Write the structure tokens for this entry.
Amino acid sequence: MAKGSLAVLVGILVLALHVGLGLFAANWLWTGTDDPHQWMYFYGTGGCCIAPVTGAVGVILANNERFKALGVGMLIGLGIALVGAVVGWAIDFTPSWLPGN
């Protein structure tokens, strides 16, 4: 597997991990009595709580020549996940399946 393909694969997996944890946390913590806008707070908290760990591991791997593609992929996936969370927050996103939305 080419190094670029490996970086893309790892980036997609890291993105899926952060988005998946965010969705799990938001849907688990949000109750029907909460303000629908709190859902985005729960999503950001769940998806971003592991960001420092992912970033640190990505930097460590990116600085090692053998694992550089893995580290770069992790950092790119993390960056996309964080940008997505900020955009969701900025546009005041709430999913359509929430009651009262």
In short: The chain is about 70% helix and 0% strand. Residues 3-29 form the longest helix (27 residues).
